[in-house]
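Subject: Sanity check before I submit

Could someone independently write out the C-alpha cells for this chain? I want to compare against mine line by line before I put it in a report. The sequence has 100 residues.
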Amino acid sequence: MSRDLRGQASEVLRVYGEIGRRVSATGVDGISGLLELHGRLERALRDVSAKEVEWALDRIKGVLDEMIRVDSELRRLQRILVALDLESGEPMRPAERASG
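---
Independent answer below. Compare away.
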C-alpha cells in the first residue's frame, strides 16, 4: 500500500513539475500564477457579457470595413489625379487639384 502511495505521489510531483515548466515557458509565474490568471479571467468574464463583446467586435469590424473603403476611394482618386497630370503634361499644383 505505501509503495503504491509513494508511486502516486511521485507521479503527481512529476506531472506538477511538468505543468509548472510548460506554464512558466509561456511567461506565467508557475502554477500559482496560472491560478491567479484564471481567477482574474473568471471575474472579468462575469462582468462582461458575450453579447457586449460581440457588439463591440461587430462595431470594430464595421469601422475597419469603412476605413478600408475610404482608403480604396482615396487610392482611386490618387490614380485619377496622376492620370490627369500625365494627360496634361504638366503636374497640377495642389490648389488646382482642390478647385478642379
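---
OP: Matches mine. For the report I'm noting this point. The CA atoms of residues 59 and 65 lie 10 Å apart.
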